[in-house]
Amino acid sequence: MAESKDVLVTGCSSGFGRLIALSLTGRGHRVFATVRDREGRAAGATAELVAQGAGRITVVEMDVERDASVEAAIGALAAGGAGIDVVVNNAGLSAMGLSEGFTTDQALRLFQVNVLGAHRVNRAVLPLMRERRRGLLVHVSTGLARMVMPCFGLYAASKAALEMLAEAYRFELAPLGIESAIVEPGPYPTALGKNMLAPAEPARLAGYGELAELPARMNAGLAAMFEASGAPDPREVADAVVALVEAPAGKRPLRTIVGGGSGQALGELNAVAERLQAETLRAQGLGHLLEVVTPE
User: Fold this and answer.
1) Which sequence spans correspond to the domains of the chain?
2) What is the biggest distance separating any 2 CA atoms in the chain, rounded to whole angstroms?
3) 102-113 as b/e, with b when 16 or more CB fall inside 10 Å?
4) CATH code of the domain made up of 6-293
5) Residues involved in catalysis
6) Which of 86, 195, 257, 262 fits as disulfide partner to 136, beta carbons 3.0 to 4.6 Å?
């Protein structure tokens, strides 16, 4: 059994977050599971999560879209003696549809949750981690951040931005003993897909002709995949996060690919990107950072 850690997991009312929280408690870790409104629509699911957590899950009300909410939640945990060894930035918002149909406000909301939400949480916990000179930030992304599909442009853009932020954190924090990692799941049946944003201005898409039916056809294809025998199991993502949490410090990879038929090609793409990153750092006289962030 690995050393028990205090882990903050965002977005735990359903989907990956819920599975990650339960998988971590099953391994003996203590979890602070965040939800936007523990007394609202998620009240029943929240109570069930606590019951299944066998006394190792504490539900924390926190809205990653609001600075004050994040700071208050982390401040209360710190004041109560929580260590927060690991943060799993899982809270996210998805969107599918032809890009022109999404309003600017919808695009802003995607980035508000998927990018700035993680940044808010990281900023709130990093002073605690820097003081102890150890910690791990995990960012749940998607394979679409590296290989975009039509109808997922804005969602992929937000997750690509999250990955660049996570990678910058990696270099900036590794010398302080803090690691940053990314998990890239393929398609999985979760509530994230069920609750995804659709274009708020569908009338703009009338001029696309048959292309306007592309999102519906893609949705049908995903539904068929998820209903077929051998459908992808979301618990694989939770297992990948647990493996990162329990890996020895200094041994964690930057990116972990989970599921998806293009995993090998995506791994090759990531490897090329890491080589380019290394060459750029050396050219800028920052090659010493590579020694800190490269797993032995």
Assistant:
1) 6-293
2) 59
3) beeebbebbbbb
4) 3.40.50.720
5) 155
6) 86
